[in-house]
Amino acid sequence: MSTVVLHQWEISPFCKKVARMLQFKGIAFETVNYNGVLGAKVPRLSKVGKVPVLDINGQRIQDSTKIARYLDEAYPDLPLLYPVDPLQKAYVELWEDWSDELLYFYEVYFRVSDADALNRAVAISAEGRPKHEIVLMKPLLKAALNLQVKMQGTGRMAKADIEAEFTRHLERIELVLGQTGWLVGESKTIADIAVGSQLLEVVRTSKIWGPKINSYPHIQHWIQQL
Fold it and tell me: What is the value of pTM for the model shown?
């Protein structure tokens, strides 16, 4: 197999999701980071113009879910991201979609609404680049994240309501994990990787919500395995 290359933005939970998928399946890969002003090159990678983008087997695949499905189709003899059982697969896909389409916006909100989390996010997003790019990145990143959460709707909610709803989500995840230690079935799936990748980004940058997430014993044990 030719070299597998993950084109990524270091701070993206979706790029981390793909990296964890490749690790789960035992596929060696290299990463190309588009941190700092290098992000201007991302639109050239695919028609969609976003990362993650994976170069594999002579193909270029964009979108974390499309990559996940491709990996199971191309490498069925390696650990499967999606269960074979149709019902379990449906549950897994529901968790993955919920994570990508809803949970993500809580992660974005906590980054942009907390000065410490934003500073940490800016430092990560400019990692490996000249220091002056941090000055450039902060207003750009803040504006982009604010626009995302406002367009989606979370950014127009009251702070107390957002925090209360996120806490309810954590309680639901904790309850489910208490059954087998995984979100669906008896072993790790794309559901765990997708949801965990979102929560781990909150843990990485938020001094407020990181400890809160880790205060749930089942969640703490679970994310340590991701």
Answer: 0.95
